[in-house]
Backbone:
């Protein structure tokens, strides 16, 4: 039998779509060793720098000593350890909702929630730039899926208006779009959902811990917390909160429904106690130390202004995710490798992650970067872009 896998790998290489894993050494910090070279990391989702915070490490160590390193079963069998209750109570209060349910990953949360809430005979409306996990959750649901152009509310309303007599409608959107750094028009989306009797689901993976006065995310940023906002909100514990896992918040009935109907919740092993304890400690820090979040925004502002002084645009971003579109995938990956040689790690993003001819360098600054880190990175970016005749 022919080597199908090898042939496919060669095809990916010819299309410049081949991916490989970087060798990462050291703690998740602003500086790490990548492929054997010490570099400034500018593509991490450790936005608040909490992954190495002493309080998270201490919480994880204490939980390990007391509860071990594995929950040993799914939550519905023997894995529902005591930390779940604490974390879910905290998440519900943090988000101003009745209840929360913790999932193993954000990807599993989107797959499990979407496929449980809608099915055959229902319609999903989702943004053209929705995350891959939303796309796959929509496909898995077997509902009709209708995609509207990015943030185009007129197009969405036309779709909603045209669909009558449908059992259930679900609008699914990101809060912060992970490749562009722009925001969903959340207030208008809530109005459309109510007007056309659709459920609204918000994936706030990149907003939680970052946006809003308390860091509660996109809904708080727009003043639409609790029942005034989305019917269902999903987010991650593995980005700004510095741990691992994901959450769903909403009504108590939603939580009970998902426990009984969401396959990616029912049929998976529970999270390890250290991850749960670290997530609780991460929530503590977000709520108790707003200066960490302010340090992030100060660094984002400084780095964005530095890129703009070089003549590089970061549009349409209004958040901590700063894309610099470089268009061609080959050039983007060459820029990535040259920056790595100069001590800056920013993984290039290319199709199918982003649309054709929108390949980019996607910079993410953290609260833990120093001004020295950012100045060194900006100097390397200037040198690289000049070498490629892009400045």
Residues:
């Amino acid at each position: 039998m022919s080597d199908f896998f090898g042939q496919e790998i060669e095809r990916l290489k010819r299309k410049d779509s081949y991916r490989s894993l970087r060798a990462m050494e050291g703690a998740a910090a602003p500086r790490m060793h990548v492929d054997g070279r010490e570099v400034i990391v500018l593509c991490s989702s450790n936005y608040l720098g909490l992954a190495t915070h002493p309080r998270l490490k201490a919480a994880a160590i204490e939980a390990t000593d007391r509860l071990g390193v594995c929950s040993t079963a799914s939550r519905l069998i023997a894995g529902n350890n005591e930390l779940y209750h604490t974390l879910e109570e905290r998440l519900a209060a943090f988000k101003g909702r009745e209840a929360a349910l913790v999932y193993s990953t954000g990807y599993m949360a989107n797959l499990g929630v979407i496929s449980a809430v809608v099915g055959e005979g229902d319609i999903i409306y989702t943004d053209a730039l929705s995350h891959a996990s939303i796309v796959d959750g929509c496909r898995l649901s077997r509902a009709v899926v209708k995609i509207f152009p990015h943030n185009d509310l007129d197009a969405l309303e036309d779709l909603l208006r045209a669909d009558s007599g449908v059992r259930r409608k679900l609008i699914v959107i990101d809060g912060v779009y992970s490749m562009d750094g722009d925001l969903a028009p959340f207030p208008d989306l809530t109005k459309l959902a109510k007007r056309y009797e659709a459920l609204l689901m918000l994936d706030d993976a990149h907003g939680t811990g970052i946006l809003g006065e308390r860091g509660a995310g996109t809904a708080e940023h727009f003043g639409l917390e609790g029942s005034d906002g989305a019917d269902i909100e999903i987010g991650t514990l593995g980005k700004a909160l510095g741990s691992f896992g994901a959450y769903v918040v909403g009504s108590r009935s939603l939580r009970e429904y998902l426990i009984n109907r969401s396959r990616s919740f029912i049929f998976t092993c529970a999270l390890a106690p250290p991850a749960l304890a670290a997530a609780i400690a991460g929530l503590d820090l977000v709520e108790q130390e707003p200066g960490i979040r302010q340090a992030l925004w100060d660094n984002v502002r400084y780095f964005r202004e530095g890129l703009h002084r070089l003549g590089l645009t970061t549009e349409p971003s209004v958040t901590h995710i700063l894309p610099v579109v470089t268009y061609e995938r080959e050039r983007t990956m060459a820029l990535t490798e040259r920056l790595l040689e100069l001590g800056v790690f920013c993984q290039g993003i290319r199709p199918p992650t982003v649309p054709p001819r929108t390949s980019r360098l996607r910079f993410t600054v953290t609260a833990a970067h120093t001004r020295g880190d950012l100045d060194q990175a900006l100097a390397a970016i200037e040198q690289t872009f000049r070498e490629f005749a892009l400045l």
